[in-house]
Amino acid sequence: xIDGQTARSSPSQAAVRAESLSKIFRVGFLARRMPAVEDxxxxxxxxxxxxxxGPNGAxxxxxxxxxxGFVRPTTGQAxxxxxxxxxxAARRKLGYLPENPALYEFLRGDEYxxxxxxxxxxSRADATKQAAALLSRVGLAGRADRAIRRFSKGMVQRLGLxxxxxxxxxxxxxxxxxxxxxxxxxxDIRDIILKIREEGRTVxxxxxxxxxxxxxxxxxxxxxxxxxxDCGALADLVAPGSRAIxxxxxxxxxxxxxxxxxxxxxxxxxxVLTFAEPSAAQAAVRAxxxxxxxxxxxxxxxxxxxxxxxxxxxxxxxxx
Length: 320
Prior knowledge:
Layout: E1 14-27, E2 32-45, E3 49-53, H1 60-68, E4 75-80, E5 83-84, H2 88-91, E6 94-97, H3 109-119, H4 124-137, H5 153-165, E7 171-175, H6 183-198, E8 202-207, H7 210-216, E9 219-224, E10 227-232, H8 234-237, E11 242-250, H9 254-259, E12 263-266, E13 270-275, H10 278-290, E14 294-302, H11 305-314
Parallel strand pairs: 3-8, 3-9, 6-7, 7-8
Antiparallel strand pairs: 1-2, 1-4, 4-5, 9-10, 11-13, 11-14, 12-13
């Protein structure tokens, strides 16, 4: 059973819930079945950042579209707060940034944002006020007074994020929000996502970029071939134990180093020993100290999210 899937939060705790969601598309002349998402159950708690991680084609975007109500699931149900996904009540709680925002390119950026605010139910005065604040927040202040068709890819992405935030939604769903951004833009978007959480709102975003997940997420779900293989906090998903322990010492006699049972590598001044077991590393520390050598460091090398992700994507690890 996947960690985190069996627990059920109360409606006051869950910002997003999905139970046994599946989507099967029919393609071709013979209407061949093509499963995009299979039996997916997850919960996103209020006020957390949840990352939906997976390789391209894993079903992340289809899952998001079912949560938004854009795609009707073949089986299963989903809720935004206590409202059925796709209902008007659910959509009023949501802000959404698609992977490739399709904006009205003949409008100016500031005009478009006011228009989005009006669609969200704001008065013109409130929409104008929020638009100005959001343009500043996403780094477009003074740059949005031109037609969107003249925006760079990064500017379009920033404007799309501002559109997702207009109307102060409780939950923000972002599909590949760092797509097409340079390193400065990526950091800016990360900071904005963290600020959204500080404001007590919920963020669910999809990505295949591991560094974004490690930098931002309270919890993460890994999707492979339409299935959720893992779900939980990063510390719980990657093995809590060490896969290797590295000891670095100076002044260690070669004969003693060879007798300690680890892999030995000589540096210019130090000897590096690598052990597979903590007990062997602890015994080596005692031997190093008893020999009068200098212990420089003792470093556990833990399993990483990258190792887990690659193993799942390649199908080399069993499902949790």
